[in-house]
Automatic annotation (TrEMBL):
Cellular compartments per GO CC: nucleolus
Protein name: Nucleolar protein 11 C-terminal domain-containing protein
Domain Nucleolar protein 11 C-terminal residue range list: 105-321
One BP term from GO: maturation of SSU-rRNA
Species for this entry: Paramuricea clavata (Red gorgonian)
Amino acid sequence: ETGNFKPQFLTTPNLIEASQTIEEWENDVSKDDETENEILCRVLDSKKTKTAKKLALELRKYFEKSTCTESRSEKPTVSQYFVTSIFERCIKEKELWSSETGRLILKTRVLPQRCFPQFFSLALESNDIDLLKDCLFNLNGISESTLVDCLKFILRCNDEVFPTCENTEIWKETNSPCSLSRARYLSLVLSHSINDAFLQTNLRKLHFEETMLFMKFLLCVIKWWSITLQDLLQLEGSVHTLSYTQVLDWAALTLNAHFTQLILIPEAQTLLVNLHKVIAEQITTHEQLDQLDGPLRHFKKHEPLPKNDRISAYSMENIEL
């Protein structure tokens, strides 16, 4: 049982306009609902949409007609029931699935969260990195299990799958085990909201080789973190920005999930030593920078420093960084 129950109206009724009467508004709502119901019956009819190309064509034609021209996002005004029904047919008849159908569904912005895992699964099964990017761009509230599945896919797939991206001098300097293009997709996954407990449990799905590659990537990002690197790791058009805190969270949770394995295998011990060294250095630097916090706050607010009789008019202090 899918739980996809037909509502009283397929479409979401538009607000009544000032110039409309109640009767006119009701007629418009009924007309829109009848139109969507008619289109839905057509696209669900196996005789009328036998192929993936035909299904995508019917959807595109209807979505173009139903797109709200006044909206900046230009998303089609279709119901969640309509979108879910189409998607569930694609799940049952996978030969009807195509990247275009997936993008058309994403464009509606009404795909329910319960469909996210299967939607991502179809994108990953078809090695469709562009559709995966669109999913991560447009869907919020992605489960930790799905995020880890995306992480596994990005870690194990060949470099040829990713768009061509020339490694910059900044990225070459990090000596990262990943290409810049792969690193940007990893960063996109890491930039989504997570629940620590759920993520740590799902991170155990990573194989040792995947864990090592991922931890080496995180080590490089932690070591070379800067605003410049943050901008470099962001895919063009993405509203998700990876933060340093998120990098540390993923590193800590991955260590917790694979701690015993990483401790016992000699290959991982060098990685752990290097990670400890980098973190220790950054903690020391942070403690020294923390001494500047008070004076800089006063400077930012254009306030004088607190008066101290023990300090003469001329004073010199050194801060080691």
